[in-house]
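Course exercise 7: structure representation. Students receive a sequence record and must write out the corresponding structure in token form. The form below is the worked example handed out in class, using Endonuclease MutS2 (790 residues). Read each field label carefully; the graders check that inputs and outputs are placed in the correct fields and that the protein name is recorded exactly as given.

STUDENT ID: A-19
EXERCISE PROTEIN: Endonuclease MutS2
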Amino acid sequence: MIYPESCLERLGFDEIKELITKHCLSPMGRQMVSRMQVITKFDQINKFLRQTYEFKSILENQEPLQISTFSDLKYLAEKIRAEGSYLVEEELFQMYTSLQTAFAVIRFFEERRETYPNLEALFEHLPVEKNILKKIETVLDPKGKIKPNASSALQEIIGAIAKGEQEVRKRMDSIYKTAVAQNWVADGSLTIRDGRMCIPILAENKRKLKGFIHDESASGQTVYMEPEEVFTLNNKLRDLEFDKRREIIRILIALTTDLRPYTPLLLSYHGFLTKLDFVRAKALFAIEIEAEMPVLVKEARCKLVNARHPLLTLSFKAEKRSVVPLNISIRENLRIVLVSGPNAGGKSVCMKTVGLLQIMIQSGLLIPVHESSEVGIFNEIFADIGDDQSIESDLSTYSAHLTKMRYFIEHASPKSLVLIDEFGTGTDPQFGGPMAEAVLEVLNKKKVRGVITTHYSNLKLFAGNTEGLENASMLFDNEKMRPMYVLEVGKPGSSYAFEIAQNIGLQKEVIELARQKTGSNQNRIDSLLVDLEREKKQIYDTKLNLSNQQNKVKNLVSENEKLKLFLEENKKALIKEAKLEAQSIIKNANRLVENTIAEIKENQADKLATKSLRQNLQKELISNQVKEEPKPKPVVEVGGVIAVGDWVQLINTETTGQVLEINRGNIVLAIGDLRSVVKKERLQKISNKQAKKVVQSQSFSGSISDAITNFTAELDLRGMRGDNAVYEVEKYLDKAIMLSFPFVKIIHGKGDGILRKLIREYVKKYKQVNRVEDEHADRGGDGITYVYFN
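STUDENT ANSWER:
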């Protein structure tokens, strides 16, 4: 239940329907949009939402779904029900194109069976009756016109008409030439009058030519005459045209009679196409407002995450602005949210967003929220928006509000959603505030759900002390004196009446006088609320800064872990290398000692020989000792101090990169598409000009390697003309010579041998060409030429 009906317009749902209507292709789809209404059955809402979501996926994934024409098949089916009725060519063509669309869509979903189950349900058990198309194709051509051979009688009549028109033209040309030769004709050529071809004759010569006058000029000096001979022929042609029309009608009646048994099936196709157009329009609108499919629940509750008002979203998108998202929750222990805050701070937009999105969901429309949002189902949606004054009904603004409150209280239940804007206004605040508080208390006892906006302090106090109610406020920037349009749940908000008045330049004496008249208690409450808002703003900014710092710390920790991992990997590699080197040294030392002992034995321990061998052994062992690395000297950055963004080069190499980060003695480089960590002492800073040269040389070498990879030693010229073939051979040989290929294979075919001769003569002009040879006779013979280079 929606009360009052005008709330749909006030919340903007009528405008939503107009925007969806623009995406419809047919009047049937537009009618379905106009009949959209709020429903309360979970399964039905879920089905409609999923159909729209699946069609949205098809559109976003650019699936090849061909949808071109939607015509009113119901009207055509109803027309052919009566015996003797018939469809004209245009109506038959509309039926034909619409059925083509329906069959193409059915075929699309059958090829993707079970991929879009909710959309498949639209045409469940609906057959593809191609006989209807075949019957229409026997009569109509692809442009929707009657085929000349639709029947043998029609073919004969059309032939007779063509022959008669030719005879008329021939006779008319002959008579016209005679009249011109006799100077009977006025200025001008043959013309049409009353559907008849006539000759413009001077009035004084009209008796000289037998015929029928159809018209005369304004001056009366020229008459338009149809010669007597031609008149008879034209009458025959007109009779043939009548025969042709009668035959066409007979053909159309026969075709319509053949199609009459398919009337129930045509009505089924009509229903399918209508629903398809409707769902397509909803999907296109969902893409337009960036809508998603929230989690649908059966309970009367909602949790909106990053919700945006759809109409505001479209308006801001046109101005290239973004809407501040809304986060709000309505549930069992937080049933009514009381929103307060400054004027023009977004209170009404917040309330209208909740109401409009709920109506859209219960009408089967996707909504602009995060997909983690949860939306339930309400049996009644009540709204009090605007004053609803009525002179006819003798209702004042306040009376209109009270009338709605009476209805809300009488019909509200735990499954009702109540939306009230500027609760309690329209009368003396001294009495309006307590009345609004009483209504709010009764609604809360009935456990209704809702969003209410107000400026009354007594309502804020009541909400703060009552279970089921929750204060919320729209944040306000005290320093810049402007609203932030962010909803903060948990605390009431100040109206900032004095601050806003001061900001717009209202005289100080007026503001001070207003403060005195307001009363000390009210001023103290309002000041406390302002201070609370300021503290909330500071906490919000602090949380934001803390979040940014935490992100920076996370990034630093992540980078540190990467560096640690890199060092650990290098450490393992160095230790492994050192162990291998040590093993090699020990092996060499053992081999030297063994050789020395063997030589001493051979020399039978001769003193001089032994001494000499010992000295040689000592030298070899000293030379194989691992030299202690000198202590690192202070790093001197070659080429100047290295900073982030500088170009550097690895010392004694051609490798060049750009500095991304500097972590103590380590530098993170971007070398092409690679990232590498290098010690600072291994790098030297170079100028941008030097870096550009190195990068260009590297890209050139890369292009050469790419060319070698992509080049094939075979060129096919079959079917080419001589000039084009020579041009291709020239480019091909240049590449082959540049890439140092030993030979290439040119396929030109045998034919008359002209192309072979032309190519071989051209190839011999190259100094680099050593010789040319035919392919083996079994593999193409003289249809293929091998070119060998020096």
